[in-house]
Design brief:
The complex is a heterodimer. By secondary structure, chain A is an alpha/beta fold. Chain A is built from 25 helices and 18 strands. Chain A has 5 domains: 115 residues, Glutaredoxin, CATH 3.40.30; 209 residues, 3-Layer(aba) Sandwich (Rossmann fold), CATH 3.40.50; 83 residues, Ubiquitin-like (UB roll); 89 residues, NADH-ubiquinone oxidoreductase 51kDa subunit, iron-sulphur binding domain (de novo design (two linked rop proteins), Up-down Bundle); 58 residues, Alpha-Beta Plaits (2-Layer Sandwich). The relative contact order of chain A is 0.08. Chain B folds into 2 domains: 67 residues; 77 residues, Glutaredoxin. The chains are: A alpha/beta, B alpha+beta.
């Protein structure tokens, strides 16, 4: 039988003593964004050095969260966070810092004006965050089960199997107030209870890791950086509802997550934490992976189950709900990755501890992937109830060179939160009240150069291409919505169209079979509610105030402002801009394709947006 | 040519034995299709008929699953796969201009392959590198913060000639 405490005591030094221990360690971020920036090459270089240098260890960890500073690495014991490390930088860091203990300050992120190292958790990006689900992410070697155990991993499972009845576990989860992190926010405890009490000999535990919302990558970070938390939680769920088999349905577009999960499942089986007679305590539970096929609607629970069974991922009407008739017609518990990853912490620390985090109706923390027009793109975990302003300005460093216009949450199913609601607390109920939604955690920051009609059109276009076609309101309704928006962005809309648009939105919402169609009009409705002026401007004055809708704009260079830096000409893909350096440049309207690159790149606001060029 | 044919038959033989194992393990036809795609590279009628035979289903049932999921390729793909990310973060930072530039240079649209079989172009929704938006990938290599004017030089790294 596995002795968790012994393993914890042995390996905790590897993790916790990184900061104070004698040996030098480097944590290199292996998150997708850093890997895209070639962090893999840095890792391989360091791995070679590991053998040559005494008392030196290199660990590849999950996403550290600060994606815009990638590739990132932390050098211990000093806790120096190096940002945007190139291969050349790495060589300098190795010879200067790792071999000779001299910090390379030019590449350090966490320093003050006097070049003192500031503890990471005191940096603005980290100080307002609260890491519960992501606490291991970026700290431990995700594939090393011993490092996971050293951070109290699997102690929750042991506690459940040894001293808690299934009903007691459900009671803890219910009292904690945890709600589903997939977006809808259904109380998790209730879901577990429904599945437990459902009649049936065979039951299943499923994990929804089909993170299809464009611009969201929270679940991916959890799977890649802390996979055992999800596996442990699913095992607990197996014990509670009485299931012996679990499935994780994961996007095939996440190869690293698939690879990490495959290895983690194999390791857990090898050490007796998954499979037959887990921990010698009599529980049989196994997990298999199922890969998605690139279809957004498979993130909808009934479509996901269809797909796990190997069929076309078309949604089924509900009821019956999966808790009663799910996978292969059997009672099935289906939760999202982040929801599962919360469970071990709640079991270990108790419902009261969790209850103290967050607001009345929304307990705990939420992970957001913040992107778009923002200085620090990345992954943040914040307590529920934090304001939009705190996330955008304090944590993520604000909108570079522009003004915050709105924040979009919930992707193609969600809505926009306009800048005037910047002090709105982020929780399920406040967001729903103003017509946005929590969603799964994608948060896209929009500035004044974003057209709200265009963004609504973008999301509807997404829903059109992802509608499975099973029900008519979604299949045809979304297409018509798209055409209406297209007409408006081309300057061919009328005021009457706006009323028709709204009417059709409600029709699609009310009559669609599944969540996709029931939510797809939300981006239109919320932009109509908060940015009605912009729609009116498009249809009445045939003008796109943000300068995005190509048919409605032309670009001109303001001679009095242009300093002749030639940046616009360099960025013009069609060579439509010409001029002499240090003299005002000119745009050839015949060659101009209205891509807006000049407008976006001008540092002197010299590129003006005119009206319709025709 | 003969050599190619041999290679093909060989791959089909490998697939047949793999599928037989999958069937005995109780796998679904979707798992079979995923296996076939990794072995053959795409799903053609030979593959569909083989799966149908081994799994005791009608070919049209297998085709209905294969055609539902975009990750199953029903045609042979180009040598290099270009993915232009049109996720939200990339979209607001100008992904459309990149897509247009790739389409213009290669003369193909989303989902198509160049006549010389060198490139296939697909748009994808979010590759999870939003910090580097807008991005495009070629055979998995990620190009960060792409500008329309840089597309030509990126493509030429992979053998594009005007």
């Amino acid at each position: 039988m596995i002795d968790l405490l012994k393993i914890k005591n042995k390996y905790i030094q590897d993790v916790d003593l990184r900061k104070v221990g004698g040996s030098r360690q480097v944590l290199i971020c292996g998150g997708s964004s850093c890997q895209a920036d070639d962090s893999r090459i840095l890792y391989e270089t360091l791995k070679v050095k590991e053998k040559e240098i005494k008392n030196f260890k290199v660990v590849r960890v999950g996403c550290m969260g600060l994606c815009s500073k990638g590739p990132a690495m932390i050098v211990y014991p000093e806790g120096v966070f190096y940002e945007k490390v190139s291969t050349n930088d790495l060589n300098t860091i190795i010879t200067e810092h790792i071999l000779n203990g001299r910090i390379v300050f030019s590449k350090v992120y966490n320093k003050d004006a006097d070049e003192n190292i500031v503890p990471l958790e005191k940096m603005p990006f980290f100080s307002k965050q609260m890491k519960v689900v992501l606490k291991n992410c970026g700290r431990i070697d995700p594939l090393n089960i011993n490092e996971y155990i050293s951070q109290d991993g699997y102690f929750a499972l042991e506690k459940c199997l040894k001293s808690l009845t299934p009903d007691e576990v459900i009671d803890i989860i219910s009292k904690s107030g945890l709600r589903g992190r997939g977006g809808a926010g259904f109380p998790t405890g209730k879901k577990w209870m429904f599945t437990k009490t459902a009649v049936g000999d065979t039951k299943y535990v499923c994990c929804n890791a089909d993170e299809g919302d464009p611009g969201a990558f929270m679940d991916r970070a959890v799977l890649e950086g802390n996979p055992y938390a999800v596996i442990e939680a699913m095992t607990i769920a197996g014990y509670v509802i009485g299931a012996n088999q679990g499935y994780i349905y994961v996007r095939a577009e996440y190869p690293l997550a698939v690879q990490t999960l495959t290895q983690a499942i194999a390791t857990a089986k090898k050490v007796g934490l998954l499979g037959k007679n887990i921990m010698g305590l009599g529980l049989d539970f196994d997990i298999e992976l199922r890969l998605g096929g690139g279809v957004f609607v498979c993130g909808e629970e009934t479509a996901l189950l269809e797909s796990v069974e190997g069929r076309r991922g078309e949604p089924r009407p509900r009821p019956p709900y999966p808790a009663n008739e799910g996978l292969y017609g059997k009672p099935t518990l289906l939760n999202n990755v982040e929801t599962y990853a919360n469970i071990p912490n709640i079991i270990l620390n108790g419902a009261e501890w969790y209850n103290h985090i967050g607001t009345d109706g929304s307990k705990g923390t939420k992970i957001f992937s913040v992107g778009g027009k923002i200085a620090n793109t990345g992954l943040v975990e914040v307590p529920m109830g934090i304001t939009i302003k705190e996330i955008v300005e304090d944590i993520c460093g604000g909108v570079p060179g522009g003004k915050l216009k709105a924040v979009q949450t919930g992707g193609p199913s969600g809505g926009c939160i306009p800048a005037r609601y910047a002090n709105l607390p982020v929780d399920y109920d406040s967001l729903t009240q103003i017509g946005a939604m929590m969603g799964s955690g994608g948060m896209i920051v929009l500035d004044d150069k974003t057209c709200m009609v265009d963004i609504a059109k973008y999301f509807i276009g997404f829903s059109v291409s992802e509608s499975c076609g099973k029900c008519t309101p979604c299949r045809i309704g979304n297409k018509r919505l798209y055409e209406m928006l297209d007409k408006i962005t081309k300057g061919k809309g009328s005021l009457e169209d706006l009323d028709k648009l709204k009417f059709l939105c409600y029709e699609v919402k009310q009559n669609s079979l599944c969540g996709l169609g029931q939510c797809s009009p939300n981006p239109i409705l919320s932009t109509l509610a908060h940015f009605n002026d912009e729609y009116v401007e498009h249809v009445k004055n045939k003008r796109c105030p943000a300068g995005v809708c190509r048919a409605l704009v032309s670009y001109e260079i303001d001679k009095s402002k242009c300093v002749g830096c030639s940046l616009c000409a360099k960025n013009c893909p069609t060579q439509a801009i010409s001029g002499e350096v240090k003299k005002p440049f000119v745009i050839d309207q015949k060659k101009c394709i209205k891509c807006g690159e000049c407008y976006k790149n001008c540092k002197f606001n010299a590129v003006k947006i005119g009206g319709d060029s025709k | 040519m003969e050599k190619n044919e041999k290679k093909c038959n060989n791959k089909l033989n490998i697939l047949e034995s793999k599928l037989t194992v999958l069937k005995s393990e109780g796998a679904s036809s979707m798992v079979a299709l995923q296996c076939a795609q990794s072995v053959i590279g795409y799903i053609n009628s030979d593959v569909i008929n083989m799966i149908a035979k081994i799994f005791g289903e009608k070919p049209e049932a297998i085709y209905s699953v294969a055609s539902f999921y975009p990750l199953f390729k029903l045609q042979k793909e180009g040598k290099h796969i270009i993915n232009v990310c049109t996720g939200t973060a990339c979209f607001v930072l100008g992904a459309e201009n990149i897509l247009k530039e790739v389409e213009k240079l290669l003369g193909i649209s989303d989902g198509e392959t160049t006549p010389d079989g060198l490139f296939s172009l697909t748009t994808v929704h979010c590759v999870g590198c939003c910090a580097n938006a807008p991005v495009m990938t070629i055979d998995g290599k990620v190009y960060a913060k792409v500008k329309a004017k840089n597309v030509e030089s990126i493509l030429s790294e992979w053998g594009y000639r005007q």
